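Ex. 9. Protein: Transcriptional regulator.
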Amino acid sequence: MGNIRRTNSKQKIKDAFIYLLKTEGYQKMTVSSITKKAQINRGTFYLNYLDKNDLWRNIKETILTDISACLKIEPQNPHFFSEASLKEVINYIIKHQKLLFSILNSDLYAEFIADFYKTLVKIFSKYHNQNKGPIKQPYAYEVVFSGIATIFTLWIRREMKESPEELLKIIKIYRESTPIDILAL
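Predicted structure tokens for Transcriptional regulator:
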């Protein structure tokens, strides 16, 4: 019974966080505003989190850990994230659209995108610690992974107007084309 209540409380807190992120932003959000919106007492909040920063850190780490699990490097495609793993990320984003949209359209945007980029680099560099390409580190990772992170975040911020198939096509073109090709100069 206690676990069910704790799970329900955590979901209420998360729902309140999403709502308040959209309506007032993270900087103005307080534990009081979270507990009021979640219709729980402060003690319940503090049973689950130390403060609003701990709540945000928990949410962010969960998202990035889940995305990392989707982006495993596969033996048949050891050079870059496979289409199958990118589809898993897209499905994860669709499932958590409301939360991700709120984060990426709030004052947490810059922090989240930076951590998302770092996650992509960390996953890829775990399997590839050498760079034999024409652009050396840290520039190579910046060019590749900031672009992929930006494609995903722009898609979310635009309320996923393109279908998952269209998004995969955009990522494929990005991965296979030069900037001159992409801009058709």
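Check your answer against this statement. The mean pLDDT is 89.
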